[in-house]
Design a protein that fits this description.
The termini are far apart. Helix 3 (55-84) packs antiparallel against helix 4 and helix 4 runs antiparallel to helix 5 (133-150). A hairpin with a 7-residue loop joins strand 1 (158-164) and strand 2. The chain is mainly alpha-helical and 256 residues long. The chain has one domain (12-221, 230-255): Up-down Bundle (Rhopdopsin 7-helix transmembrane proteins). It has helices at 2-14, 18-48, 55-84, 93-124, 133-150, 152-157, 183-218, 228-255, and strands at residues 158-164, 172-178.
Length: 256
Amino acid sequence: MLNKSETDVIIDLYQIPPVLILLLTLFYFLVSFTAIVGNSMILWIVYRSKRMKCVTNYFIANLAASDLLIGAFSIPFQFQAALLQKWVLPDFMCPFCPTIQVISLNVSIFTLVVLSWDRYQAVIYPLKPKTSKKRVKCLLVIIWVFSTLLAIPTTIAFRVEFVDDESEAAIQKPFCNIIGLDSELWRSYSYTLVALQYCFPLLFISYAYLRMGITLFARDLPGDESGLGNADHAIRRKRKTSFIIAKFCNILHIIF
């Protein structure tokens, strides 16, 4: 009787209420649909409009492309695995979906780093030539290539394996698990991703925007600021600059 009760508890843990299934399905569908439609529109606008083809918008379009991959390939497939508590898709999708997720995350973060570097150069060294469109395109290609190479261990690690179902005797369920790499190798790879996706980018972006904020705050306005009105205007401008920089840094910390 005790064993039966324990089994019932395990079954309850694996059962998801129908209402929750409906709500989660609706929520994930809306998130995925919004990501696909919204980012597709951004890419289309940048592609079709000549006025939108500038350096900053190329970076924004690259962010949209990476988010589009997440919405199209990562969110729906990862959701079905969590909801059904088993892997029902073809085996090749098991390593494909996590790989796309890692690539997209890498592209987004490295794009933010390069964008911060570009803004840093423009503010700290205003007399230097601006980054050309050709150079930006080369940088974006490098970002995608490096991001893809960095995701190769994920492709190797994830495989479909059959695991005993604790809720039903003599039944095995397919799961997408990390079985292609040794646990120590995977741990080292995970630490590397944390360093490259979080620690180094956060430190660099924080430094870049703090340095830009200090530079803009200390920079004198052109013209005569000896009058009281001009002095007040300069103070308000510096406060506004400090607020914008602080707000942007907080947003970056939240994103990371």
